[in-house]
Write a structure and sequence with these properties.
Elements: H1 2-38, H2 51-58, E1 63-64, E2 67-68, H3 83-91, H4 108-113, E3 120-124, E4 130-134, E5 137-141, E6 175-177, H5 188-194, E7 201-204, H6 208-213, E8 221-224, E9 229-232, E10 237-242, E11 262-266, E12 271-274, H7 283-291, E13 296-300, H8 314-325, E14 329-333, H9 347-359, E15 362-363, E16 372-373
Parallel strand pairs: 5-6, 6-7, 7-8, 12-13, 13-14, 14-15
Antiparallel strand pairs: 1-2, 3-4, 3-16, 4-5, 9-10, 10-11, 11-12
Helix pairs in contact: 7-8, 8-9
The protein binds zinc ion (2 copies).
């Protein structure tokens, strides 16, 4: 009797469950399809190093059991946001994106067509993408032309401004330097678009696996460990992979599998330092001893927060690092393009400008796309204060 009464209810119940399961399966399929299509069939995550590449990585003095470690392995290394930080990240009220369009050089290609007079010229193309013209060589750092610093074309931090120069209008370069594999520094669509140009990529250990998966021929990839160097033009330009204090990874299971680096560029007349992403490390004193002083040092100032204070400098520590490497002028990078932290979009520049004034450090703060030489009137005005709602 009770069975006869309960049966229709059970049938209804199990039908509801079936509908719910179907719904979940449908949603999961759509999400997987979107993830698959928006990440270039998951290719954006890159490839795992194998064979002789992997052997070379494991032989590095910086590799421990398959992962790379910083020089100072601090057990309390600040690279873990707590719950409060995550809450602030999600709900903080800072103006994290600019209220209006950023001022930009109008015709970057025309400005670049004139050769630099002093032998050293730099052009900020957004975030950590710098075109460095140094004693007759053209070097491009961490090229990101993509819309998002993310594996997906649909979600993730979106750029505030269009690239100041279309990629196909960029003059040929002698070298592309990469600092590490994070999405705001290594952008799959950008690399793929560069393949036909035939440029050579100089990268820290392990990154070549990603590049080769995206179509860069192996002979166009040069992987270096810290303190290793290559030279171009019969030794006229030396490019040294120098230390940084950071981490790496593009997916869930490749944390610190590939190396991170800063770059030291030594020309016959000029010396330039590029920090990549880094926290403050005493290795910079060694860089300064071996290769300083630098005519120009580019240091990351954005995406800083005490919760990850050991793997990103922020403006205060950028000034300390600048002193350690013996920089003569400091150009702030890693800000003004993506919102990756909890601060206002212009806070890195604002804090740096105030601190540099107090400490008497010479800043170079060019507008996006504006080629700058370090002679005459070097741009140091706070252009970001002019950014207003249209
Ligand atoms: Zn990074
Ligand atoms: Zn970064």
């Amino acid at each position: 009797m009770s069975d006869e009464v309960a049966a229709p209810g059970r049938r209804q119940g199990s039908r509801k469950w079936r509908f719910a399961l179907l719904g979940v399966a449908l949603l999961a399929s759509v999400a997987t399809l979107l993830a698959w299509t928006s990440t270039g069939h998951f290719q954006a995550f890159g490839a795992a190093p194998t064979g002789s590449r992997l052997e070379r990585m494991r032989a590095s003095p910086r590799n421990r059991d398959g992962v790379f470690v910083n020089t100072t392995v601090n057990p309390a290394v600040r690279n873990r946001p707590d719950l409060g930080t995550l809450k602030e990240l999600a709900f903080g009220s800072q103006q994290r994106t600019p209220p209006g369009p950023l001022p930009m050089e109008r015709d970057v290609a025309a400005a670049l067509a004139k050769p630099p007079e002093s032998g050293l010229r730099v052009t900020w193309l957004g975030h950590s993408t710098m075109l460095v013209e140094l004693d007759g060589f053209r070097i491009l750092t961490d090229p990101v032309w993509g819309e998002r610093a993310s594996p997906s074309t649909l979600v993730g931090p979106q750029r505030f401004h269009p690239p100041p120069l279309p990629l196909d209008a960029l003059p040929d370069v002698d070298a592309v330097l990469l600092s590490h594999d994070h999405y705001d520094h290594l952008d799959m669509p950008t690399i793929q678009a560069m393949v036909p140009r035939g440029w050579t990529f100089y990268v820290p250990l392990g990154l070549g696996a990603h590049l080769e998966q995206w179509g860069v021929p192996p002979e166009r990839v040069v992987e270096l460990d810290w303190w290793q160097e290559v030279s171009l033009g019969d030794g006229r330009l030396r490019m040294v992979s120098t230390p940084a204090q950071h981490f790496s990874g593009r997916g869930l299971s490749d944390r610190n599998r590939t190396l991170w680096t800063s770059w030291t560029l030594l020309g016959p007349q000029h010396r330039v330092f590029f920090s990549g992403d880094t926290g403050l490390t005493q290795e910079f004193a060694e860089v300064g001893r071996r290769f300083g002083p630098f005519d120009l040092a580019m240091f990351e100032v954005g995406a800083f927060h005490p919760s990850w204070g050991d793997i990103h400098l922020g403006p205060h520590q950028a000034l300390q690092a600048h002193e350690l490497v013996r920089g003569r002028r400091l150009l702030p990078i890693h800000w003004g393009t993506f919102s990756l932290a909890i601060h206002a979009w212009d806070e890195p520049a604002e804090v740096l400008a105030a601190e540099a004034r107090k400490q008497g450090v010479a800043l170079v703060t060019p507008r996006l796309g504006h080629p700058v030489e370090l002679t005459g009137d070097v741009p140091s005005a706070p252009w970001w204060r002019e950014v207003r709602a249209p």
